[in-house]
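ok so for the tutorial part 2 we go from a plain amino acid sequence to predicted structure tokens. step 1 is just haveing the sequence, like this:
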Amino acid sequence: MTPVKPIIGITPSHNTENDDTSLRPTYPRAIRAAGGLTILLPLEGTDEDWRQLAAMCDGFLFSGGPDLHPFLFGDETHSACGNVSPVRDSMEIRLLKAAMELKKPILGICRGIQLLNVALGGTIYQDIPSQMERTFPLAHKQPFYYTVPSHHVDIKKGSLLSKASGGLERISVNSQHHQAIKNAAPGLIPVGWAPDGVIEAVEKPDYPFFLGVQWHPEYLWQNDPAAMGLFRLFVEACKAS
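step 2 — the prediction. this is what the tokens look like for a chain of 241 residues:
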């Protein structure tokens, strides 16, 4: 009998101009390569809908996308803040609550790590270049395509991220963001840092699998064992959920 693959729900991108939802194929390709199946989640629904989806899926990937609305973490809108999707913000926060009630594995990527942090009570920088003092202006929005790494991330020894990365203490990552975690939410601990001090990864030690990363491993897994290891560890956790 063919083994049953875990089903992983992925949050959608939202085009606020025409109200379309979509998903880059890089996410399901990475999950498929790691042994999972994916579904694209709806943008709208009731709390009961999110509870039913949380029960149906074996894990959830919170994908990349636009900025979070500043009101969610108690800020006014910074002049460098980009476009937002309040309906997506609301959907993901409610979905996260439902998924966590059932202890389902959670992976956040780029916007996803920021959403996880804000939803649990943390804050973010709305714009790294204007809100962080740095001696070296690291390219968090890299000038070349996602498949090429642009900076390194130092990893906390013994962390979930360390396990996913095969025990490495430093990995190469790509980068395409201008916002980042400022204060980690209660219960979340930083486990990865860029050379300029930006928090690049957080996890929740008292949860079965909860990891957020600021980079885009879905563009690196084909040639990067650390990126592939992240998806494999996530899918294995989903199999066990």
